[in-house]
Automatic annotation (TrEMBL):
It is found in: Membrane. InterPro entries: ABC/ECF_trnsptr_transmembrane. Keywords: Membrane, Transmembrane, Transmembrane helix. The chain crosses the membrane at residues 7-30, 36-56, 63-79, 99-118, 230-250. It holds the Pfam family CbiQ. It is a multi-pass membrane protein. It comes from Treponema parvum. This is Energy-coupling factor transporter transmembrane protein EcfT. The keyword Transmembrane applies. GO terms for cellular component: plasma membrane. It comes from the Bacteria.
């Protein structure tokens, strides 16, 4: 993620505003094509941000899988509709396919917007921006801890797996082997996480986290004139999108 990219260098809440507008438009748009257009726009923004490869990989591994599962279930198990083809005892229904595509592209658009946001925004920048705007330091810390939870647990689990390998525990193989090693891995992970909570609490107290004094930051970020212009453009884009949706509803 390169900060010289103008989109990446935007203020975190500006990027958050763009992501929320895209999510709202994705949800309110009525048809499959309009939702697909929103997803294409998100892809274009990701490409302009220089993170398209990271973005599409994360989409594929998360909402992309959900989209495929949704497509399969709704197509073959939709309660009624026109049968377009059959596979053994399962009938693929047109209405189920259309419903799955509509719901799936809604999921892809909403999820893709948030995935793009955190592909171009560091967690610490996002939380710092929230703290400087409306959020208290304690709430900001909760948000930051939540955002960092999965990467931290993943790193710890990998460390534990490497330690188990060093002890001669078989950790790779078929499903049965992996299931057998699950308990020896999960128990140290849970215990280390609990111990880490106490360590973080002591660290925060040592730094005067609950002193009630307004904290200062060695690292800081500020809005620029570009952010103001981008916010205006995003607002215009959002208003036009909502107005278009209302117009379609009235027609």
């Amino acid at each position: 993620m390169k900060q010289e990219n103008k989109i990446v260098a935007l203020y975190p809440l500006t990027k958050f505003y763009l992501a929320i507008v895209l999510v709202v438009l994705d949800i309110i748009m009525p048809g499959i094509l309009s939702k697909l257009v929103i997803f294409v726009i998100i892809n274009i923004i990701a490409a302009m941000s220089g993170v398209w490869k990271i973005f599409i990989r994360r989409v594929k591994n998360s909402v992309g899988l959900l989209f495929l599962i949704l497509l399969f279930i709704q197509t073959f198990f939709y309660p009624k509709g026109e049968v377009i083809f059959s596979v053994w005892i399962f009938n693929a229904k047109l209405e189920g396919l259309l419903f799955a595509l509509k719901l799936g592209f809604t999921l892809m658009g909403a999820g893709g917007s948030l995935i793009w946001l955190f592909s171009v925004t560091q967690e610490k920048d996002f939380v710092l921006a929230l703290e400087k705007s409306v959020m208290s330091a304690k709430a900001s810390y909760v948000v930051l801890s939540t955002l960092q939870m999965v990467p931290v647990l993943k790193k710890k689990s990998q460390t534990i797996m490497n330690a188990q390998k060093a002890r001669g525990v078989e950790t790779e193989g078929n499903l049965f082997v992996r299931a057998k090693v699950f308990v020896p891995t999960i128990i140290p992970l849970v215990l280390s996480s609990i111990a880490g909570i106490e360590e973080r609490a002591l660290t925060l107290e040592a730094r005067g986290f609950s002193s009630g004094i307004k904290p200062t930051h060695l690292y800081d970020i500020e809005k620029t004139e570009s952010d103001k212009k981008v916010v205006i453009l995003i607002t215009i884009f959002g208003v036009l999108g909502i107005a278009g949706r209302v117009a379609l509803w009235l027609i």
